[in-house]
Amino acid sequence: MTEIRIFTLIEGPKGRLGRLQRGCLYCFTAQNGEARSSELQSWCRPRTVHLDGRPLKRWERENIRRALHSIGAVPVRRIGRHEWLWRVKTD
Hints:
Elements: H1 2-11, H2 19-30, E1 34-36, H3 37-44, H4 46-52, H5 58-70, E2 73-79, E3 83-88
Antiparallel strand pairs: 1-3, 2-3
């Protein structure tokens, strides 16, 4: 069911997803519908995380959170101090 929802979000009538929204959807697809905050950050901002090696700034994390909410993802539970487990809502 999750694969169908993600596919309809990517190929659906909107068809106008931003870079962060597409990165979140690709991460959820690779992780079977659930992903941790750090995994989502590395899918959405790979250059910053992997090449520059610096932590994301607050505004970058907030933009990722806003993209997650816009595609219908919800935080499931907290893992540690700054880590969340996210899941795509299924209809």
